[in-house]
Specification:
The protein has 92 residues and is an alpha+beta fold. The chain has helices at residues 7-15, 31-37, 80-91; strands spanning 42-45, 54-57, 60-64, 70-75.
Length: 92
Amino acid sequence: DPERDTAELLKSYMANFDPSFVALRPTPEQLPQVAKDFKIYFKKVEGKTPTSYTLDHSAGSFTFDPQGRVRLYNRYGSGAQALAEDVKILLK
């Protein structure tokens, strides 16, 4: 959410996973193209007040190769076993 997710907030959030992780933070103008490029769904859902909106969105993680290419998309909730099997295939 480019309106609420500041660079500082995202840096703190990503550090919960690994301090070397970097969050992607497009501008509101860049967001539609980034979502299209990564095949991600998002939609702003208005709340009862202007600041109480939510964002519906895809949930998952990407695995990149050393050249920075997306090699794997892991849907949220797929489980560790499914991810491990996919990574094994990539490593062959």
